[in-house]
Amino acid sequence: MTPVATTLHLPRAGTQRRSTSEPPWVRWLLITIALLFLTLFLFVPLIAVFAQGLNKGIGFYLKTLSDPLAWSAIKLTLIAAGISVPLNCVFGVCAAWAIAKFDFRGKNILLTLIDLPFSISPVISGMIYVLVFGAQGWLGLYMNADKPWFPWLAQWLNVHDFHIIFAVPGIVLATIFVTFPFVARELIPLMQAQGRTEEEAARVLGASGWQTFWRVTLPNIKWGLIYGVVLCNARAMGEFGAVSVVSGHIRGETNTIPLHVEILYNEYNFTGAFAVASVLAFLALITLALKLWAERKNAALHAASQ
Amino acid sequence: MKTLLNIGLVLALAVSANAKEIKLLNVSYDPTRELYQEYNDAFAKYWKTKTGDDVVVAQSHGGSGKQAQSVINGLGADVVTLALAYDIDAIAAQAKLLPANWGEKFPNNSTPYTSTIVFLVRKGNPKNIHNWDDLVKAGTSVVVPNPKTSGGARWAYLAAYAYALETFNHDDAKARAFIKQLYKNVPVLDSGARGSTVTFAQRGIGDVLLAWENEAHLASKEFGADKFDIVTPPLSILAEPPVALVTKNAKKHGTTEVANAYLNYLYSDEGQEIAAKNFYRPRNQAIATKYAANFTQLKLVTIDQEFGGWTKAQATHFADGGVFDQIFQPQN
Q: Is A251 within 8 Å of B194 when comparing Cβ atoms?
């Protein structure tokens, strides 16, 4: 670091900075704005959730969470996410595979349909299920019909007091519907960018369709898929609107965590509401940690193979 | 693995649903949460000593109209305890889940307790609100839920309307102008009574909340008596929140007997006392006298006198294109 060396290197470093970046004050200004924004809209609310939840001490916090109603809400949320995420993972991969790797008529229509849950309000998604499966909807008409097709089926449904909405199946269905696009939307651009040359090569070398998928396509999309699953899971656990419409709000039976938060809030139990909300925040943090871990592992794998 | 675990959970849930305890679902309106939490425990004890069976009553709460719609759409209520008779009529008419004469099945038109609409104002009553005509003054912000979805909001609307009719010698045009002026002062319509209370009390919006009497008392208890004052206007409406057995659902679930007992026990001394403690006006005179301090005397008009019953009131005022739709313009 002699003065001579510095003078020697300066011109190059100086030119580089001038050609690739803004003056320092602009950079610092942008960084400060970004950090302030993040602090204000992300970190502070996140801390506030935990702080408010612990407002009345750890004892109250634990009591709220061990309440059977809270516990059943947590369980139901995990069930809904646990069913809808794997299913949407399969649906999403199928849809993305079909759209990115093949040409067929109606491809654009399929793409539009996949986006449908994004473009309509979740409340409407819930209403759809009420209209189809409600007691005044098609299912209700069928169950109460004088002469239904397959009378044994109608009878079985009636005897078992079969419910889709205002019961767990409706909540799962609504969750599947609103989280459907996440995996597919994540994979389609990725698979399109990767093209189909590797798959074609595999086929030419004699691999079956199944082998091509498992050995070529899946490894290529693995990280995109994991990312899609993470997003899908986050939305599945946090969904409020659609689930609220089909839930019926029966405590201990059809309440998910977000609905339970609303109930506690409406019962003037604000600390309890934040305590349960912190569980949701905690689950989200775990999801993020998993994603980070997956990315690190991927990077390490790549580094090792080079 | 996760899926397997979850399937296991679902199965476990399904099995536990078959366990031998009686389950009832009470679909109720918004502000009755605390009342029925207390009453359910009392009834479970009573039923246990009487029959030896355990009974667990699940609760569902929301705006009365919305709750009725859910029952119509298949929410499996054994009993409904709603804010007003019209909503139960709707269940009887549209889904035929209970007979049209459900109101005759229990004493006092199937209304075990009554209530009324009062004002909740900020401590010290800074806007000096004492009667309904104080609500239409410029600069007074009034919080009340949406009468399309909330039963309490319909009672509040009708109470204001009844006041206007009495004041203007039953001149309907003047009463309408009064109501229009009042709803001009409403900044936000929540879907249920509890939502409005939270808007007023927690979010600090508005100068006065038009609330169920019990809701006003509960809010001042929850938030501290130093925050709010309850103002009882000289005239209001006799609100009758009825109860009914949803016969078809109860029959399907095999719960007719216990559901009937559940509603009947509301009329018992213990049931009436729990209602009075939660600021619902009990039917039982002895208990009403005992808790007289909870309830300010005022002139109460009934919906039958002023509006010719619920069916007519609903059609005139709250149906699509009715008076409420004509007078209410959302503010931006």
A: no
